[in-house]
Structure formats: structure tokens, C-alpha cells
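#struct-pred
JK: can someone run the complex with NAP? inputs below
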Amino acid sequence: MSTKITLIPGDGIGPEVISSARRIVDEVVDVTWEIVEAGESAIQRYRTPLPDHVIESVRKNKIALKGPITTPVGSGFRSVNVEIRKRLDLFANVRPAKSIPYLSKYNDVDLVIVRENTEDLYAGIEFEVGKEETKEFLNFLKRYGVGIKEDSGISIKPISISGSERIVDFAFRYAENNHRKKVTAVHKANIMKFSDGLFLNVARKVAERYNIEFEDRIVDNMAMQLVQKPELYEVIVTPNLYGDILSDLCAGLVGGLGIAPGANIGEHYAVFEPVHGSAPKYAGQNKVNPTATILSAVMMLRHLGEIKKADLIERCTIEVISEGKQVTYDIARITGSTPVGTSEMTDAIIKKIRACDPETL
Ligand code: NAP
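RT: done, C-alpha cells with the ligand placed:
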């Protein structure tokens, strides 16, 4: 029976990398793709970057593969990516980073960042400088002895007990299910005692329920530790902002954003997308690396229980990268080879998949 999956191509390089992942999934699984537009193309058509039918489609199919969506910097509409995660309550953002032979600067990285996806400074609670409600809020704070400069903009950082508990519990369950031996909680609890401190206290309590090693690190130290000895870390659980930053750092350790996949998981729905953004400067050039989106599709297939097919796609993709002949510019500039385009690298992966013994599926 055909599996129905929502497909959101996204902005910039999104349509190209999504097309690659779709071609590859179509090689091994019978999928009916329900294509919906969000982001810049949706604004032109529906006057909103996130039409309700996009959310409805994911609610109906329960699963989506998504390309990156542009967010204007500093002004303009709020992040559609953040909004999708909030509206579907996709509270866990899972971002693995694993060394690839002949590509990665480090040979022994095999860690997963589990990032809280709905709270923290990404909650979207902001007060714009000079606005009437901002002045009222500042006056309210003044009554409690909190003096903030009148020409300030404010972003609020909520971190709840329930939100922290479910993400840390998710990280421990992930560790259990994937035979990982250690969970590391990352925070800045020495400075933000009532938000990050709360996160850390909850993490310590949740850790008591599991027979898995637990430790914590302050985020600035963690950044240094990850560059010096990333092999020490297995599952890293963290509030939203640190998880976003550290996962890009970890992508850099193993070969860059072009190979970094991700999954947004909730109780009822899951949306799979690369860690990278829409890289507008490369849009429409058949240039960027499709691997991050292909490996996000691999995570999606595992989520659907298609383990062997997921393993096959992953193996063929890694082989093409390690051989270094049919790879995009970002890999070629590390390995010193001549780059090919997005679609040519995709063709090479498909050729490998087709050459495999169907018995292995
Ligand atoms: P970006 O789009 O991730 O691009 C940053 C750099 O990463 C690129 O210039 C390129 O590096 C490299 N890169 C990204 N994707 C690649 C790929 N598939 N293959 C090879 N290299 C790749 O980050 P950004 O420029 O900061 O953000 C652009 C837009 O994307 C913003 O509007 C941002 O808000 C949005 N964004 C969306 C998501 C999402 O949809 N989930 C996530 C992050 C950012 P080189 O320049 O070295 O070639």
C-alpha cells in the first residue's frame, strides 16, 4: 500500500534538495506525495507564508518531508519553521552528527543533539522597541524594581518544568532505544538560574529514572569540548537556542551543513528536514549538496519502520561521498575533487541503489 507523506519543498535551495530526496525515496518505497507550499511561494499565492492547509495536510498524513524556509532577518514575517513546530507541538528536534570516511575532519564523531523545539527564546514572545505594549511592560517591570533601558527591545525566554521533562525524557528514551550509554544536558544555569537552572534540575530528576550515565555541561564549555573531543559525547539534550547553535557546530565537525539531517518529532506528528537553511545565494543553480535532505528522508523511513530501505539509502549515499567522484562543491572543496551538480550526485546515489541486490531490502 502506498504511504501518504506531506512534501513541503520550501524556499531557496529547498525545491532542489527536496526533489533529490523524493527521487531517492521513490526508488525504494511506494509513496504518494501530497505537495503543499509554505514560505515565499505561499505568500505570493495565499498571502500568508503558512496557509492552514499545510498544517492540515501534516495532521492528516502525520508525517512530512520539508525543505528549508527563508525567514527575513530582523523584520518581516516570523519564522515559518518555528511556527510549524509550535502548531504541531513537534517538541523534539533530533539532529545526528556522524563522521563520514574521507570527508570529516574528525573520524570518531557519532553523537545526536536532542533540542527542545517549542520554548526558550524561540517561543516568539517579543516586545518591539518603542511600541506601546513594550512601554507598558517596562513600567510593569519597574514596579518590581527591574530597571531596563527605555530604548530596549525584549525577547522572553520561557522554560517550563513540563517542557523540560518531556524533552529530557525523550533524550533518555532515545538513548535507550539506540544503545547509547550517556546523556549530557547542556545549559547556562550558572547565569540563568530560573530558566536554565530549572531545565538542569528537571534533567537531574529525570536521569534518576534511567540506568544511563548522565552529566551536564555549561554551554560555552560544551562548544570548546565539542571541538576538542567530540568523541566523548553521545546524546546531548539542550534547550532550544543552544541546540540550534551546537548542531551547526557539530555539522561543521563532520563535513558541513550539506550533510546534516534532522527530525522534528511530537506525540502525534513528525516533520523531517535538513539542519541547513534556504541558502538563497545558491538557489536554482543545481549546486548544493542534497545529502542533508536525503539523510533526513532516511530518518523518516526509519520512523515509518522501513529500516532496511533506510539503511540501503544511507549506505549508498555515504559510499558516493566517500568515493569522492560524484560530489557537490562543498565536499569537493574538502576532498580536492571536481564538483558535480545536485542532480548528478543524486543520479550517482540512485545508480548505487539500483545496483544493490533486491534481496537486501
Ligand atoms: P544556510 O541557508 O544554512 O546557509 C549557510 C551556509 O551553509 C551556505 O552559505 C553554505 O555554505 C552552507 N550550506 C547550506 N546548505 C547547504 C547545502 N545543501 N549544501 C552545501 N552547503 C550548504 O544559512 P543562512 O544563510 O544563515 O540562512 C538562509 C535562510 O535560511 C535564512 O532565511 C534562515 O532563516 C533560513 N533557515 C531556515 C531553516 C529551516 O528552514 N529549518 C534553518 C536555518 C536557516 P558556503 O557559503 O560555505 O557554501
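RT: quick notes.
DSSP finds 13 helices and twelve strands in the chain.
The first strand starts at residue 3 and ends at 8.
JK: thanks, will look after standup
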